[in-house]
Specification:
The protein has helices spanning 10-22, 39-43, 62-72, 88-96, 106-113, 115-122, 140-150, 176-191, 248-263, 295-302, 306-314, 394-407, 417-425, 427-430, 438-442, 454-483, and strands at residues 3-6, 26-32, 46-51, 76-78, 100-101, 154-158, 168-170, 196-200, 206-214, 220-232, 235-241, 269-278, 281-288, 331-338, 340-341, 347-348, 355-357, 364-368, 383-391, 409-411. By secondary structure, the chain is an alpha+beta fold. The chain folds into four domains: 3-102, 3-Layer(aba) Sandwich (Rossmann fold); 131-200, 2-Layer Sandwich (Dna Ligase, domain 1); 206-447, D-amino Acid Aminotransferase, Chain A, domain 1 (2-Layer Sandwich); 454-490, no CATH class. A hairpin with a 5-residue loop joins strand 15 (340-341) and strand 16. The longest helix is centred in the last third of the chain and has 30 residues, at 454-483. Mean pLDDT is 93; it is low at 482-494. The structure holds ligand MV4. Ligand MV4 is lined by residues 130, 155, 163-164, 167, 199-202, 205, 207, 231, 234, 274, 276, 285-286, 436.
Length: 494
Amino acid sequence: MKKILVANRGEIALRVMRSCREMGIQTVAIYSEADRFSPHVKFADEAVCVGPSPSNQSYLKGDRIIEICKELGVDGIHPGYGFLSENADFARAVARAGIIFIGPSPEAMEIMGDKLSSKAAVKKYKIPLVPGSEGAIDNVPQALKVGKEIGFPIIIKASAGGGGKGMRIVEKADEFEENLKRAVSEAESAFGDGSVFLEKYLRISKHIEIQVLCDTHGNYLYLFERECSIQRRHQKVIEEAPSSVLTPELRKKMGEHAANVARSCNYTGAGTVEFIYADGEYYFLEMNTRLQVEHPVTEMVTGVDLVKEQIKIARGEAISFQQEGLAINGHAIEVRVYAEDPANNFLPDIGTLQVYKKPTGPGVRVDDGFEEGMSIPIYYDPMIAKLVVHGQNRADAIAKMKKAIDEYRIIGVETTLDFCQFVLAHEEFTSGRFNTGFVKDHFKPEYLTAPVSKEFEEIAAIIAAVALQQKENELINAAAADKKFSPWKSRLIE
Ligand code: MV4
């Protein structure tokens, strides 16, 4: 592979291109009109505009992206996460065009993309599954029968869903009538597939996922776990590796189960097997057939560059290490920095990064795709950056993260940084006992707005007004300078 097109934007596009460059591989960026001046465009060896800002007119234009590859002599496509990364039809079209899709086979994506077919696939490996319905449920008597067997509460999940989309919790039998009907019609309209199934709802649980790496030579390796229980409405906020609750024995068993999930669909490349953990027991939920947002915590504790491994596997090489050669070194934590206002129900807060200063130092990694002065586009995910730290142990990593967040300076948009600081300081978090209900159970927006005196507020308002005027002047100058910037590396193919 000599030239890779990264079919993505922002931090992940940059992160993938960095590994390509270290491997001596040429990089091609694609960008939408909103991303014309983005760092991933400047970093790439070549860059092509794929269309207007909305992603369905740009980053999701699979056919157009394949055309660009043909024109520029691209031999591999890395899809990043989101967008086209789990689209089996796209992966198939890429292969048909004689280009390597850096990811699993379309067949593996399809098997794991459907929760019922993924459960069916792992059956022969005796993977622990949450008690539930054998297949799809489409009527109340069927649901009641399962309810009798497994007891309440019960969760209804869409087979074509995943990541928490289209789930409903049923507390008692008479709630089936309405919830089943709604779940089916929601699944139908959201995924074009109304199949739903039932599982015993585990109310207090942890979200633990295992990173796997598999090559075309029959090697199925696990790179241990990430714990991602700190989340809000299915959006992860803090992830870490390792998890506080896994013993070495449990870790090995879970890892071997994860490798078997990958085996069940002849998986190749990097993937993540998601488990739910409750009371010392764990159960397989689903497999994500992409590189995940939180992959850096695994890289920090294992020393493996997952993107480089993905590329080597796609080239047909065998993984250069073995399971016995892998170990967890220290502890890593990632916080996602979103342009959202935690004091205002985490509403996306768009605007310009008037001040943007990143923390640095040993064991501190920032994966981002913005620079000072840039605006956060409204069209995409509002994540500004991932701040990742590595420490000798969990306490050390937490301390390092607190210091790094303190050093992070973002002015112009509200961010989730203070909220993350609140989580890191909470006893429930430091003790490791937290579960997926943490944010709902322990966070109130008032916690972030410390009371201040009237005089302080007045002085602060004056200082802010002066600073704003100064900044405005700077921005006017910056905008004038910006006009001189031409994306001369870009090639527009009509
Ligand atoms: C569950 C569960 C409890 N019991 N399954 C969320 C992400 C998706 N991959 C699966 N998810 C869950 N599956 C069983 N059998 C709890 C979650 C879950 C959750 C569910 C409802 C509302 C918020 C939640 C937050 C995290 C996890």
